[in-house]
Amino acid sequence: MTIQQAQIIAVARDGTHRFSKTPQPGITLLAGLGVQGDAHAGETVRHRSRVRADPTQPNLRQVHLIHAELLGQVAADGFRVQPADLGENITTRGLDLLALPRGTRLTFPSGAAIEVTGLRNPCAQIDAFQPGLMRRLIGTDDAGDPVFLAGVMGIVLEGGEVTPGNAVHLALPPEPHEPLRRV
């Protein structure tokens, strides 16, 4: 299914482990690795805390996606956040990323494809970027449990170019759908 209004509004990468990434005119996704030239690309974990815990873990966080609507929501609360500021590789519009089930496949006109693996967990670096922002990116559900709002993570199934303006094609996994959990 293609969500008509769903599109990419920004893409980014950074070759070093910094919190924010650098917006780009396009990025190249590499199957099984992530974003070419990005510090988080690799078959095994690249996030420093996860490497310290177990460097042999599979990298379920090859690509970070955030929906632009979140940026508007935090702006309404007085925060100034632009695409790539929160370390995402792909910023979408018109797609509720947080509502997708685990295993959803996102494809782009080049044939590049990402499988959504889980939620990004907000970390203390968010407050170093803007004090109070981390608390804003953790909500609560009806049961009072934390809900992570800082985007989703995925792995690259098929390589290819992704650029702003690209449409996003969505394929849900077979039912029963698994909700996203922190990865």
TrEMBL record:
Chain ranges of the MOSC domain: 22-171
Name listed for the protein in its UniProt record: MOSC domain-containing protein
Pfam families noted in UniProt: MOSC
The organism of origin for this protein: Deinococcus sedimenti
InterPro entries, per database record: MoCF_Sase_C, MOSC_domain, Pyrv_Knase-like_insert_dom_sf
